[in-house]
Automatic annotation (TrEMBL), chain A:
Localization, UniProt: Cell membrane
Family stated for the protein in its record: Belongs to the ABC-2 integral membrane protein family.
GO CC annotations, alphabetized: plasma membrane
Organism lineage: Bacteria, Pseudomonadati, Pseudomonadota, Alphaproteobacteria, Hyphomicrobiales
Organism: Mesorhizobium denitrificans
PANTHER family according to UniProt: MEMBRANE COMPONENT OF ABC TRANSPORTER YHHJ-RELATED, MULTIDRUG ABC TRANSPORTER PERMEASE YBHS-RELATED
Domain ABC transmembrane type-2: 148-377
Name of the protein described by the UniProt record: ABC transporter permease
Topology in the lipid bilayer: Multi-pass membrane protein
UniProtKB/TrEMBL annotation, chain B:
Keyword line: ATP-binding, Nucleotide-binding
Membrane-spanning segments: none
The keyword Transcription regulation is annotated on this UniProt entry: no
Transmembrane as UniProt keyword: no
Entry protein name: ABC transporter ATP-binding protein
Domain (ABC transporter) ranges: 4-231
Database matches in Pfam families: ABC_tran (PF00005)
Amino acid sequence: MSHTIFSLSRLSALLRKEFIQMRRDRVTFAMMLGVPLMLLILFGYAINNDPKRLPAALVATSNDHYTRAMVSALEMTGYYRFDHRVSSAEEAEALITKGDVAFVVTIPSDFARRVERGDNPQILIEADATDPSVASGAISTLGTVASQALLREQGDQAQAATMAASQLQVVVHRRYNPEGISQYNIVPGLLGVILQMTMVMMTAMALTRESERGTMENLLAMPASPVEIMLGKVLPYAAVGAVQVVVVLVAAKGLFGVPFFGSLPLLLSAIFVFVLALVLLGYSISTVARTQMQAMQLTFFFFLPSILLSGFMFPYRGMPDWAQTLGEILPLTHFLRIVRAVMLKGAAFPAIATEVAALFAFVLAFATLALLRFRRTLD
Amino acid sequence: MNVIDVRNLVKRFGDKTVVDHVSMQVGQGEIVGFLGPNGSGKTTTIRIMCGLLTPDEGEGEVLGYDLKTDSLKIKREVGYMTQKFSFYEDLTIAENLEFVARLYELKPVSKYVDDTLNDLGLTTRRNQLAGTLSGGWKQRLALAACIMHKPKLLLLDEPTAGVDPKARREFWDEIHRLARGGLTVLVSTHYMDEAERCHRICYISYGKILATGTVDDVIRNAGLTTYIVTGPGLNEVAERLQGAPGVDQVAPFGTTLHVVGSDRALLEKTLAAYKKEKAIKIELGETSLEDVFIQFMAESKDNMG
Ligand SMILES: Nc1ncnc2c1ncn2[C@@H]1O[C@H](COP(=O)(O)OP(=O)(O)OP(=O)(O)O)[C@@H](O)[C@H]1O
Ligand SMILES: [Mg+2]
């Protein structure tokens, strides 16, 4: 009989046991696959940072062809959906206050006359800016759309030339996602978020469950070393992670048509390092938490900043410096850069090397923490 | 060489000393009973011995391995049965046994598992979830699992709690059979009849070992005298004897009354006075282990003030 620190057959005993338990725990098992699908569908379909067809109210008293041209041009942008046509400012005011519309477009009755005279024609657009992202796209396209509509309608070549010259052309150059489709940004990011949530939570609960049910006492009394116990807990969940990765990547392609420019093996290797960091973080949590409830709370303690500061929800570069610094110490931040770079920009290894190195640093740090914190005894 | 040789073990939880300078020596092939009231520190002492808790003070060897540095080696050769069922309730009986067999690297796994199931008589229920077993069967499964790897030392924490008399009898026969083969056993229990089946017993109270030796030694050293009272109106007698000079315990046993005291002369004087009043019969009885333990408990409560 050998007294080695590591034995494959002991590890396989632990793995087998963990897989059987995972299979028996139907609800948890369903959650492992259900959560990614649910998040994908929610975030992928429902959440849109560049919303289109927002309800709008039109206040227009005159029905001349300039006004009609203006309205149809605005509708053509896709941002406005004129559900309400009202004749007074008060009615419109009521609609926007109640939140029935996101915009009120007012075309004054002297609009046509001013256009013909060249006397500063104006239209007024009031946007409900309580949610800034709702209004930004719709407003940014406005200037161009409006003046072009007028030009077309006037058909006066000479005047068109002068007006075009005096106009500041707004160039919106959206690289990598020319149409500004949020799903291209969100779906790869979701891969990171889903893994962050499920991997950390599952592993954090796995070891605390043993303490809570009292099986820890038996496990510790048997000859399993801390490394074996750690791997026995961590690897099964990494395998679950692999399944989730396949689900998300297939959905990204199949449901959302997210382009994939980079190398799949490169992405998968990076995902592997990320998952390893996450399960080790979860395991570290479970060496600290005494109950599953505590494990859950600690998981969220990491999850919320991860989602907020990693650049998943809000643009990373737009955050204040201290928030960016905090973001740097979250594995998700680095993973998001990798997955977006590889999928959307076709980045090769050198471009993401520092991010991968950061993930490796997390793996080392969490593994060390987990092994140091692991209690070989019940003290 | 002693299989268990621990000296002056101390374990504190907060400012409470749960194990207080416990020393214990157990030789090979011995069956030692570990007795003591609830919360006296039996489980804690056993956990220290199998490396599950680190003692705050003290030292010792188990199976020749140092308690503090060689706990992994100790774990391989000790079979520990926990007081609370701590196998996996969401695994079947067979899966639990397989898990244990693989962790101890027993080969071939299926033979060990099949043999154990056969001995237990659980072959037909091998695919039943362990959590759905009755309390007594859980105990029997746990015991079978912890002797599967043929340990040299068995640490059993109340292994027969909730087990029916026949299974208990079989269990003790099995323990004696294994001990004849050289296995050493330390077993905690609250049953007096089980204590009497041990080669030796250790009595612990508030973390301190108060008595150790064979059952007869312990009874003799306690220095108690027991009289058995028979006759009419025992209830009234019992009431009046309670707290009388020299009377430490009064306990009804069926149609008789056991009266126990540590001061023999005083006890006899009190009883003689009663005998004159009542038509009762008083004769010298044998002090039982239970009488001794109850005496211990009453005395240590006094100590705790
Ligand atoms: N982890 C712990 N933290 C704090 N106190 C503890 C801990 N474990 C045990 N104790 C305390 O130590 C004392 C001894 O407990 P132990 O379980 O050793 O008693 P026991 O003799 O096995 O009792 P029983 O016969 O009821 O099983 C008890 O008062 C208990 O409350
Ligand atoms: Mg106990």
